[in-house]
Amino acid sequence: MSDQVIAQATRSINVGSKSFAAAARLFDEHTRQSAVMLYAWCRHCDDVIDGQVLGHGQLEGDRSSGEERLAILLELTERAYAGELMQDPAFAAFQQVVQRHGIPPKYPLEHLAGFRMDVQGYRYQTLDDTLLYCYRVAGVVGLMMAQVMGAESEATLDRACDLGLAFQLTNIARDIVEDAQIGRVYLPADWLEEVGIPPDEIALAHHRPALALLAARLVDLAEPYYQSASQGLRDLPWRSAWSIATAHGVYRQIGIEVKALGAAAWDERVSTSRAQKLQFLAGGALLALASRRMPFRPRPSALWERPR
What are the record keywords, sorted (predicted)? Predict the structure, then answer.
């Protein structure tokens, strides 16, 4: 494995997501390398579609020729699976991860299908439409990360997918206004109609009180997915369970703060402080330990089912 590939992937995660970078340090070395390289591919694809640099500059990003950009990503992904020598560091990293862990192509291709929804300006009429998007851009990432950590059972993979859904629902709630400013609306149109917000007016300040109600609804919707995901920790290696439990706590807290801030939630980007991250680091260790003694409960049938 090339040191250059690992170094590039590590830089990608350190700049693109400080929260995930901190959680990834808890993995054992083998798992951390794979997780970081998989993240680098996901980050790269997102950046290419949105014209960003390591997740930054969303409002200024160049989103022209999205279909062409997506076609290139699809081609490179297929070539990586075909075993070609990949020159792009993100795809070289990706190729090593999928080969090492036997990740099936349906997952990364489903992830790219989520970006196609962005490129084509998909209209989210119902909650199921929004959850499909969440599955594609985050649920399948959870599935791939679970395989990196050695998970094999369908029950554990389901819980990993649930965590991805919870993370994305939280992200949507936090970024509603910023996304709307670039023409992306992930809230179900049905919900917007209920509170009288036209889709092209989401970013307007006078809609913030009504928007806060919908953000709270998203946060509440994410909660049973967070609870379901915690059940999957028991089947992960200890250090992996600790890492995921820490990220679980950080993202869940972001949702809690978005809900608590109400109409002020978008005055500045909601994040967790260093002190809070340290708190969740300790809490994650306790949750990972407690999960070993948890009776495994059936996954709630009311939750959205991932495609098989």
Answer: Carotenoid biosynthesis, Transferase
This prediction's pTM: 0.92
Alpha-helical regions (H) of the chain: 3-16, 18-24, 29-50, 66-81, 89-101, 106-119, 127-134, 140-148, 154-174, 176-181, 189-195, 208-230, 238-261, 274-291
Domain boundaries, the chain: 1-101, 122-308
Chain segment 124-156, per-residue pLDDT in tens: 999 999 999 999 999 999 999 999 999 999 999
Amino acid in position 63: R
CATH superfamily entry for domain 122-308: Farnesyl Diphosphate Synthase (1.10.600.10)
Question: Rounded distance, CA 213 to CA 222, Å?
Answer: 14
- Please name every residue paired with 78 in a beta bridge, in sequence order, or none if there are none: none
Check if the beta carbon of residue 308 is closer than 8 Å to that of residue 230. no
Interval 246-267: pLDDT, tens: 999 999 999 999 999 999 999 9
DSSP bridge pairs for 56: 53
